[in-house]
Structures are given as structure tokens and as C-alpha cells.
């Protein structure tokens, strides 16, 4: 749990499956971490390490990307942006201890300093979030400087704030009167509904990028040069070797579906292991929603169930993007 504020309490907001999202929420992103890269070789070094095109990343833009091993299996999925004197790399806290040493492994040959940041990570979410960012940061673009930090637009209703403790307290004081305070389960719900994946410690080195739809989220460049795992990622595109994709499902659950939970699929009158939960959210009315990696050739109308709760039926829902688009 985050300890940057001694006076604010960030709890899960009780939402049903049909409850509108809060018009403005301040979210404590304590389950997330930030890596910073500072130095003249930071961009060129990352270009040879990750799936996205770092060289073409404009100062007012951010991008999703993946860091893979030599076999193309993902160590993490991250969001990259220009941050103060270098780059900011936003990812799940659970992979920091294993992924960060791998990212730094070859940096000894480059002029770049890579380290875990002590910045406070907050989210502003809701239909009023962009108007609040205009008050806090001003300017234009999807990445804007803040006093001792950066604001990064995630989607039409969300901004990520990476700031020092003093600025975090100042922002909290400004928005506390009009914003609901939430833990980062609300951020999870936004990610799930928008089909944005993540890698946790339990799914590290299990999937190639296309298995989690990164080609549909502009997180893979097929035109840049070589990077770690590039051969596998390219082969999955050009030879069609990838047999999995990530889908959005809903169903009943007494507990929040966790990363790594097993979803079973119906095959005639029997049930077989169908997929792996990437992220889940449990509503207060007994319904749940999850991103799940499944075979990409399932028959339409296939039903599913959580292996741990076999009495409930889950159904596939449409993703907010197409998996047929060319990347």
C-alpha cells in the first residue's frame, strides 16, 4: 500500500456492472512502478531492446510496448513517454525485480542510467479528467510537463501522473473536493474494458506480444530494426504461427478473477482448459469482467467458466478494437 499521503484513504469504489464511472476520480497507482532512463544513449539503447519504435516517439506522445526475451516471450508490457530529463517507463510493480535487471543488462555499453523511480504514480480518471489536467499542467499534447513530473494521457478519460511527493500532495489537495478517491482497481477496470493488457509476475515469459493483442494497440513496429525477440514476433506476423489472442469476457464470480486463473471452455458436453486470465475486476453485484488469453480459432458461441467456480457461465464480449487490422 502506498504511504506517500498520511491523510488520504484510497479504497475500492463499489460499482455494479451498470454503474456509470465517476466523473472525476483520483487513483493511487500503488501496484504500478516507474523506471527512468536518463542519458544521451537512452533512446538508441531502448530501440534495440523493445517492440515499439522509440526513435520516432515524439515528446508529446506515449506508446505501449513490450520487452521480450530472446525467444520473443514478454517480460513486461509498458507505457513509454518522455519524462523530465529522459524517458519514463510505466509497468506493473510485480515484475520490477526480475525485469529491470534484464533491461539494464547491456546498458553498461551505453551512456544511459536506468533505475527504478521514486516518483508517486497517480491516475486522474473520468469525463472531467482532461479539464483538470488543463488546470494542473496547461499546454497541449498527450504528454505534458508538471512541476517535478509529467502528465500522460492514456485514453479519453484517463491521465497518468508521475510526480514527486510534494507535487502529489498539492494535486491531491486541489482535486480532493471534487474527486472520488480510489485504489487502482478502478484503473484496472478501465484497462480491462479498453482491452489493454499487462504482464504480472505470474505471466512473465509466458506469452508473445501478439497473444495479448499488442499488434492491435500500436505497440509493435514491424518496420524498425532488430530488437530482442524480434525474430519470433516477426514470424508470428508473417507466418501466422500465433494461435492465441486476448479476449474480453464477463460472468458471475464470488471473488475477483486473478492473473493466472484458469478459464475452462465448453467442448460438447465436456469442459477443457480454455485460457488464462490476464486481469480481472469484480463488481459489487456478483458480476465480473476479465481479459483472457484464449485460442484464436474458437467457435462462435463458445461458453466458458472459471475453473474455481464451475457453476457460473461466462460469455465473450466485443473488444473495442479489431484483431484483423494490419499493424
From TrEMBL:
SUPFAM superfamilies linked to this entry: Aminomethyltransferase beta-barrel domain, Folate-binding domain
One GO BP annotation of this record: tRNA processing
Stretch forming the signal peptide: none
Major subcellular location class: cytoplasm
Compartments where found: Cytoplasm
Pfam family, one: YgfZ_barrel
Listed Gene3D superfamilies: 2.40.30.160, 3.30.70.1630, Aminomethyltransferase beta-barrel domains
GO MF term (any one): folic acid binding
Keywords from the UniProt entry: Cytoplasm, Folate-binding, tRNA processing
Residues annotated as binding folate: 32, 187
Membership in a protein family: Belongs to the tRNA-modifying YgfZ family.
Name used for this protein in its record: tRNA-modifying protein YgfZ
Organism: Photobacterium galatheae
